[in-house]
Amino acid sequence: MYGDLYGDPDGPAVYADDDRPISGRQVALIDLLDRLLSGGVVLTGDLVLSVADIDLVRVSLRAVIVAVREQMDEQWALDLPGPAPLEGGGTDDGPGPPV
């Protein structure tokens, strides 16, 4: 049960079902992003540029980041069709059935 994602047998193991807080264990960046995107993340922030206690520029950031595939219903899932049929009954990847 030991080893990290890159095959280091002496490195700490990282499991998704581990209940310890993230600050108490090492987590690969891809695991952190996967967990955040599967549940969604809301980012908020403010940036104020001021000179001599006079606010010159204010930037407010509000963003919702979520994995689209996690939130889509099956009826709205993308159904990628195969090659388009040609006039002779075949497709552009080969001839159709003999006529």
Automatic annotation (TrEMBL):
Gene Ontology MF terms in the entry: structural molecule activity
Pfam families: Gas_vesicle
Cellular localization per UniProt: Gas vesicle
Source taxon at top rank: Bacteria
Main location (coarse class): other
Record bears the keyword NAD: no
GO CC terms in record: gas vesicle; vesicle membrane
Ranges for region Disordered: 78-99
InterPro entries: Gas-vesicle_GvpA-like, GvpA
Keywords, comma-separated and alphabetical: Gas vesicle
Keyword check for NAD: no
Family: Belongs to the gas vesicle GvpA family.
Listed name of the protein: Putative gas vesicle synthesis protein
Source species: Streptomyces scabiei (strain 87.22)
